[in-house]
Structure formats: structure tokens, C-alpha cells
Amino acid sequence: MARVYNFAAGPAMLPEEVLRQAAAEMLDYNGSGMSVMEMSHRSKEFGEIIATAEQDIRDLLSIPENYQVLFLQGGATLQFAGIPMNLMRNKVADYIVSGSWSKKAYKEAQLYGDAHLLASSEDGNFSYVPDVDAIEISPDADYVYICQNETIYGTRYNKLPDTKGKPLVADVSSCFLSEPMNIEDYGVMYGGVQKNIGPAGVTIVIVRDDLIYEDPLPFTPTLMRYSAQVKGKSMHNTPPAYGIYICGLVFKWLKAQGGLEAMKKRNEEKAAILYDFLDQSKLFKGTARKEDRSIMNVPFVTGSDDLDALFVAEAKSHNIVSIKGHRSVGGMRASIYNAMPKEGVEALVAYMAEFEKDHS
Amino acid sequence: MARVYNFAAGPAMLPEEVLRQAAAEMLDYNGSGMSVMEMSHRSKEFGEIIATAEQDIRDLLSIPENYQVLFLQGGATLQFAGIPMNLMRNKVADYIVSGSWSKKAYKEAQLYGDAHLLASSEDGNFSYVPDVDAIEISPDADYVYICQNETIYGTRYNKLPDTKGKPLVADVSSCFLSEPMNIEDYGVMYGGVQKNIGPAGVTIVIVRDDLIYEDPLPFTPTLMRYSAQVKGKSMHNTPPAYGIYICGLVFKWLKAQGGLEAMKKRNEEKAAILYDFLDQSKLFKGTARKEDRSIMNVPFVTGSDDLDALFVAEAKSHNIVSIKGHRSVGGMRASIYNAMPKEGVEALVAYMAEFEKDHS
Prior knowledge:
CATH superfamily of the largest domain in chain A: Type I PLP-dependent aspartate aminotransferase-like (Major domain)
Number of strands of chain A: 14
Distance between the termini of chain A: 32 Å
Radius of gyration of chain A: 21 Å
CATH topology of the largest domain in chain A: Aspartate Aminotransferase, domain 2
Low-confidence stretches of chain A: none
Oligomer: homodimer
Number of helices of chain A: 9
Helix content of chain A: 25-40%
Order of helices and strands of chain A: EHHEHEHEEEEEEEHHHEEHEEH
Strand content of chain A: 15-25%
Strand order of the largest sheet of chain A: 2-10-9-8-5-3-4
CATH architecture of the largest domain in chain A: 3-Layer(aba) Sandwich
């Protein structure tokens, strides 16, 4: 079978060049006589792989020297606990809830201290990002938390909240490396890599030096302490080495594509193809508020559950897979991360146009 | 370059057949048109991969139905915290320390309650397993903890401690699936897979139903709660999917080799080749007490730091890599896990014999 256009929300498509290189190096990485999977994480070869990966993501995001880059495990979900464990000095934090993921993070933080709900868009089934202009930050908040792009509802912050000097903590799992970001706007930026960067099982945490404490909450597992992971250079224990290697190949691919400015342009073009179609369609409509639309995740519906189901069922014959929407929104969702080619989005829109013609 | 004999302690050699299959399936798994790395963990395809992997390890170890099998993240090190968080009902546990890994686990448990040191072999630089026959268990101990095979010092328990009815918790990272084990002897058996089973980033936990509590210690991250992971069938969040897929291929390979009885025979043969040589050598000697010798990790020395360094330096030209010992023991260490062929051990012994002849 040919490669398919995979619109999954994550794990998701990876660049074909990266997969080809990984396959070619599977039995013998760079003359070492072994796979990266078999390599001691203390070896010279793996030391170069992880150091190069770190340098490349630093280059891509222009990460300042006073930020540490950590390659960890456990996904965003483990960071939902790790963030408060590491940062809750006053045991107070402010959460803005714009979807399922920020809501889960908010709920988990309540295990560790006084997590305030600053704003929520749950009243509108998370179809928009709460207005954050007039937001009042708790005077003793250790941080303000957002999920910058909500995968399920297809919204994103087009403007970051003014945290009045408190550290901003952002889960960027579903928009990681999709466009340039100003790292200095953040205290902590983190995300699982399985959407835009690599295979599930690696979590990248970018944390400012002054937020790395030697004394996090006392029951914080050593592996979850940023201080321990900084000291061990992401190797306090055996890291998810093969996943880090694949991330490194993707970083090289992103550089070869022209870096994050080029990716932003490409991603905006891809999203525009889909949104332009949705905005003129008489059958399909997007579910997120226009001004908060994500360029990574595009949920849409026909208004008829039966037609939605038919659209999903017949997609496979158009080489389109994993287009079904999340159960909390219904309908369809197209996740169009970095590795989704423009041709994939064009194929989807062609199928939508054909489907609309057949069912109107 | 040809494939090498890689004696690394972990990550370590994987069966070449498994690597070949992974490479062949990298761009298109089983006609899906995508890599396992790109596959939604909620897809039918991945559902089959993880269910088959679970069934295969259940078959290999004859795991009874009242034990759950979890595929988690974070390595043994995260379980050093996870074990007490999940099991310390009375906040008391007994630890037997026979090497670096059980010592780390013991230290981490002190964050969560009253971790007792039942016995330690640190006085002998962990060259033996503490005598556990006359051991007195704390009456209110929630569990008794051991590391069954200590990777660094090359020792193993040839007889499990009598825990007087308390649950036995064992880190089996470096002897996992190397021979049959009686699961009913354990309350929890767990290990990182990166030695005997697969790529770093997957931790397998086998836990008895009555030890899965809905109310672990209150600050336990949701992802670390056995109850949440059982409920989510190891998919409370996105699992380390590609690593689980490779583990599944290794399980199939183990079955094809004849299962764990056959592996035990093979591993004992391999270890005997090396130990028989050591026992007659006038230059090399093993560092672990004879009756506690591991069949997975074999540390040895010449008695001269210079000769040790020379032996390590010249090994590469014999196609032998990662033979250097851990800094806490010095000398050499040969890790001879399931995937190390007998020919690799024979090549090592031939090199040792040649080296001994040249330097005596």
C-alpha cells in the first residue's frame, strides 16, 4: 500500500525522509555496527546525538542561554504534576482553561496547592480562547498556566496573556516548532513530541534557570525534579534514546526546510486552503471561533451525524485516514502538523468538495 | 562496518531479526501506509499491537489472571518513587540493598515513609547478595523490596527472600525474561526494558490485583497511579508506542526461540563459557561471589588498571564493544543478555585467552 495522508492528532505523520533515514540506519548507525536502540546512553555516539539534538532545537527556536532544554519521559500528562511539584513555591498558581488539556492540568495541580481558575471557555464547549486582556493575576501566583494550542477543539492563543510579570507556563504539544516563538515570553514551555516532532515517549521541557529549584515540593520523585535532570543533562537515568534520535532527525529536516519562519509560512498556507474551503462551504463548517483558529488542528462538522459518519467511512478510499473528530466535538478533525504535505490538505479539500457535491 | 558484539549493560543488543523487521516496516506497517511511530494510539492497528504484546508476555511468563501488565514510562528510576507512592499504606517498607540500584530505590523510598534497611552487602562492595534466610520482616511492612539482578556488580538472588507473607517487590530490569520466573512469588515485578527486551523508554510493571489501590499517597501523579493505568490499559495518556511495538517483536522472537526455558538454557551455557574461562585464568578474575553470580552481567578484572585499560582499548579491533566496567567496580563487564549470541561470548573468551597469553 502507498503511504497515506494521516490526519491523526498525535501520534501523527513524520517526514518520509526521516523515516527512510531511520530505516537505513536501523542495523548500523554511522558505522558503529549497532542500532541507536542498542547503544549505551553513555557512549560517545549517543552523547553526540543528544548534544546535536539540543543544539539544533536551540538554533530553531533561538533559545537563550539562560534556558535549559530537557528531553524527558511521561508526556504532557506527567508534567501536569511536574509543573506544580517544581514551581509551586507559594502553593498558588493561576490556570486559564481553554480545552480538555488545560482542564486536566488545572485539575492535577489541585493535588499540590491552590490552583485558581482564572478563566474558562467551557461554557462555549471550548470553541474559543478566553479573553485574557483584563485578566487579574493572583498576587502570590507562582505561575500562570495555559495550553497554547488545544488539539481537540482546534483553538490557539494568537496573543499571550499578560501575566503581570509572573512566569508563563505553556503546554505547546500541538504547536511545538510549527512557527517561531519568543522563548523569553515563557518561564516554562513544554510539550510531548508525538504531534510535530517525533515518536511518543519524549517530552521536551524548556525552563528558565531561575525556575530550577534544588528544593521542589518534598515528595517530588527525583526523576521529575528539573534540578536533577539539568544536572544529569537529561540523563539522570536512561533517557528515551531512540525517540531523541528521531527528534534530532526531525530538527535537521526542519532546518533543511528553512527553519521555523519557513514552516510558519507553509503551515499558514496549508491551514488557509482548508479554512477558505470551510468558509465558503454550504455543507461543512468549522467549530472554532474564527479569530482563535488553530493552524494545526481543524475540527469541522456537516451538522448531520449521519453525513459525518459517511464522510469518515469513505475517506480511506481517498487515501485519507484518522480524520474522525474527537468524541467531545464530534464530526471531523484534520491535524495538519509540520509533516503533513500541502498535497495532503489539497487531497482532503478535493474530497470534501466532491462529498459536498454528492450530498447537497 | 559489520555488526559488533555489544556487551553494553543497557541499552543493549537486540535480536538482528527484530531490527530487520522494524526497518522493513518503518514506512508502512502491515499495509497501513504508515509507520508505527505515526499511528494513533487509539487506532485499531495499535490496539492490536499492544494487546498482542501483553498476551505474548503473559504467555512467556505464565502470568496469572490476577496480575495486571502495564507498559509505562520513566524507567526503574520513576518506579523507585512509584512503588512507595502506590503501596505504602502503613508508610513502612523493608529494603534489601545488594547494589547501586536497590540502594537508590531505598533512598528514594525515604521521601515517602519509613524505609527500613533490612540488610546490605555494601561492606563487601556489593560483591554478594545479603543472607536472607534468617531475615526478620517488619510486622507492618507494606512490602519487601529487592533488585533481583544487580547490573553493576553482577550478582543475583538464587533464592528469593522469605517475606513472611508480605508482598515481594522486585526490580528485574537486568534479568527480565532471561529465564522462567514464578510470578506468584511476587506482589510487583517490574523493570526497564532496555537490557533484555527493547529500546529505552518502556517500563513493564506486573502487579497483583490486591495491590492496586484507588487511593495511593495523595500527591501521587495520576500518570503514576497503577489504578489509573490499569483503567486506561496502559493508555491513560499516549504510551511509548514505538517502544512497545519493538518489545512485541522481541516477545515473538523469544517464543520462536522456544520460550524462557530455552532462553535459560542458552543463557546458562553462555555464562558458563565465560565463568569457566575466568575460573581457570591466571590473569582475569570475576569480582562477584561465586554462589551469587549473575548469568546476565559478568564483571571481571586483571588486577592491573593498566592491563584493564589496554584490554578495553584493544577490544574494538576484535569486534567487541562496550566491555568497560562500571566506574564503581572498575575493570571489565560483559553483559550477555538474551540477544547476545553464543558466538559473541566465544569471541570474547578467545580475545581474553589471546590477551592473557600476550601479557603473562
